[in-house]
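User: Teach me something about this protein's shape.
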Amino acid sequence: MKVLDAITRKTYLPACRAYSRVVVRNGAADAAMTWLVSVYFWYVHGYWPWLRRPRSFEEKVNARMLFDRDPRWTTMSDKLRVRTWVAGKCGSDILIPLLWSGAKPDDIPFDVLPRQCVLKTNHGCGYTIIVNDIAQLDRSRARRQLERWLGENFCHDYVVGAAWAYRNIQPVVMVESFIGDGQNAPLDYKFFVFDGKVEVFKVDFDRFRDHSVLFFDRDCRACQVHEKGLRRYSGSVDLPENIGEMIDVAETLANGIDFIRVDLFSVRGRVYFGEMTCYPSGGAGPWLPESFDFMLGSKWRLAPFTAACSGVKALSM
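Assistant: First, the predicted structure itself:
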């Protein structure tokens, strides 16, 4: 298995990404790309996918990545542009304060930033630097890291190269207020919303140091399900008193969408928007037990894929 893992990581996935850079544009994926994704799906999930007639949740995520070119996914995946849309739906009070944004890391006004803040980019996942003390920050190193991220295309440069929603995002740097407690990032609540209704949500604990997760159903009961590769949180959990409000916010933001994951924070009794995710775990997060994957898939009434055309641009929703 270790040999297969090494071949997949060092040979197969780079080959998929190389092919993606050549052929993945704004049209639906071709037969070769579909096959490449199917092989990786089988490697990760242990069963061959039906991507043209998907049944499970993970099949539907992968089908959306390959065939759905709805420009809304680009707008929702852009961490800067989505703020305008969220404010229109729920008001600007749920947005984490934006301190600065711009195309060049060299322009970040470090000297006027608060002691704690968050440096990030808008065009992918994991592009985040938590700053606990601006005076201790290695600014040159931070700028270099941000420059590297800005030079990447999250669609073509990660996993199998199929996450189309990120392909057309114009990369920029964002500086947001830090809303955690002390030096700890707040718990991250991720709501899986189908046709405007939260079915399950998960709580991410200590995402940047000792990551673990716990799933709950709509009625806030802990679920005996898990995502393979993520440690299941074993401590006691007191959900916030405003969890009902968080569910309402998630459902408001997801209204009119067949499926979207809405990530929120609760800090000192106040709900904050995190992000919206149309490809949770990039379609590569196997569920334990596997039956949960198919149960969750049954909740997703997948809308017909939008016909794609070259030069499509994200809509201002």
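Now, about its shape. Residues 2-23 form the longest helix (22 residues). The chain has a mean pLDDT of 91. If you'd like, I can walk through any region in more detail.
User: That's plenty for now, thanks!
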